[in-house]
Design a protein that fits this description.
heterodimer; A: alpha/beta; Rossmann fold; two-stranded antiparallel ribbon; 7 helices; 22% helix; B: alpha+beta
């Protein structure tokens, strides 16, 4: 399989993503590609990394979302390949309209950089099929504008379509004060596009890929896509 | 005391490098629009109670001076309504 990481001016998680994907996807071709020379023909997984694409000027993700690179990503998504947007990558997918919603500054008004727990809400996605609804993952977040907003109607629609992927929770998987690091609506930490092949999430699976540093839960998402890409669960 | 509403428009001074404006202009050109330049500024809406329009304006100008505007880089104009 082939995984490509899009590098925008201002991306800063692309190298972490490359190293983690190489470890997660043995035998896969993994490349970082500069946004202006993006070639996604033959890509099975496109990873939009964290950072501050195009400086996050205007709004987080707004300029990258309207750049030629995102036209390629949209085309890739339309042909059914996998797209994973993490942190700023999630913001870009939302600004591009590939995923619903919008982002505001964290309600705490602070940049939040710490481990959080998220509860898996569905396994109906190539990213989540190795997990079960109710599983709890420990993953780091690092963002200032992670307060994910949906209208009440949008939220109900996504919930009805089983497109809420991850929700912030307490370490035991329950809800309660302190679980939600940024004020996101109903604690939503990640959402899926229709069909489950596009996932946007604020926590960083690529920063939780190493048992040696005490965090490996991200691997359960990153490694899951290989079976899909190699035909295991099509 | 009557309530006033101040609209403070802050923009970069002529000649100050505006990387945000340049990035937005580049995106507009990518989308096929013809924008030769874009300036990115800020709009601040302040409501305050003051005895008179003049007092309200004076107060907001002090806010601008003390915190809202960086006089080295930025210019602003101010409109007061209400009262």
């Amino acid at each position: 399989m082939r995984a490509d990481i899009v590098v925008f001016p201002g991306s800063n998680c692309d190298r972490d993503a490359e190293i983690a994907l190489r470890a997660a996807l043995p035998g896969a071709e993994v490349h970082r590609q500069w946004h202006a020379e993006l070639d996604l023909a033959g890509t099975d997984l496109c990873f939009l990394p964290g950072g501050f694409a195009h400086g996050d000027y205007l709004r987080a993700g707004a300029l990258a979302a309207r750049s030629p690179a995102l036209r390629e990503v949209r085309r890739l998504a339309e042909r059914g390949a996998l797209v994973l947007g993490v942190c700023n990558g999630f913001q870009v997918l939302v600004e591009a309209g590939i995923l619903p919603g919008a982002f505001q500054a964290n309600t705490s008004q602070h940049f939040v950089c710490r481990d959080v727990h998220v509860r898996v809400e569905t396994d109906r996605s190539p990213f989540l099929h190795d997990l079960a609804a109710g599983d709890v993952l420990c993953l780091p977040v690092a963002h200032g504008e992670g307060n994910f907003r949906l209208t009440a109607d949008e939220y109900e629609r996504l919930k009805g379509e089983d497109r809420i992927a991850l929700r912030y929770c307490l370490p035991d998987g329950g809800d309660g004060p302190g679980a939600n690091p940024n004020g996101s609506v109903m604690g939503v930490a990640g959402v899926l596009a229709q069909g489950g092949r596009v996932l946007g999430m604020m926590p960083h699976p690529e920063r939780a890929a190493w048992p040696e540093v005490g965090r490996a839960d991200g691997m359960r998402i990153l490694a899951a896509v290989q079976a899909f890409a190699e035909g295991g669960c099509r | 005391m009557p309530e006033f509403r101040a609209e403070l428009r802050v923009r970069l001074r002529e000649g100050v490098l505006d990387p945000a404006g340049q990035a937005v202009a580049g995106s507009l050109r990518d989308l096929g629009f013809t924008a030769t330049s874009v300036g990115v500024g800020k709009l601040l809406l302040v409501t305050l109670d003051a005895p008179s329009r003049e007092a309200a304006e004076g107060e907001v100008r002090r806010m601008a001076q003390e915190i809202l505007v960086n006089p080295v880089l930025e210019d602003y104009d101010l409109e007061i309504s209400g009262g």
